[in-house]
Design goal:
The chain has 164 residues and is an alpha+beta fold. It folds into two domains: 1-30, no CATH class; 39-157, Reverse transcriptase/Diguanylate cyclase domain (Alpha-Beta Plaits), CATH 3.30.70. Helices cover 34% and strands 21% of the residues. The strands form two sheets. Strands 4-5-3-6 form a four-stranded antiparallel sheet, with helices on both faces. The protein has a two-stranded antiparallel sheet with strand order 1-2. Strand 4 and strand 5 (98-104) form a beta hairpin. The protein is globular. The termini are far apart.
Length: 164
Amino acid sequence: MACRACVRPCGSLQIRVIGDDKLGVMVESTMAGQDNDDPRKLSAMITRVSDLAVAHSVASVVVGLAAEEGDLVFPEYVGFLQSALRVEDGIFRMTRERAVLHLADVDAARATDVLERLTSEFCEEFPAQQRPSFQLRMFEVKPAAGRLRVRDVLTEIFPPRVLH
């Protein structure tokens, strides 16, 4: 497949642009509408949580964050969390309205304190008429938890929707 900038085939997400020096210059291109992460990243995150608990006796909390469909603040909040988290913590964007957060070396009470503090900082930095409200469920992983599976964690932090 040839891109519009040149006649040479491009087999990746990089666009080849001809510069003044007549040589091709590679420019990174992001995919439009890509608000979620690769599912392998979630598997790696849950494996890391499990390994921390089993091999190193470190408790962690996995948090499920969910917003109403079409919420415009939630993607900004998730982006803020990504920049505010510690290096050992992690975040996975499932969809535009759902994210999984891993807080290492904390219990559920401490995780609640951390999320309240980060939400307050978000509200200070991005003032709005009302405080953002998202659904939040926590799954505490204790050192004796054993091996975790992605399916087990997701069913704990994202309850099924009840349709009436």
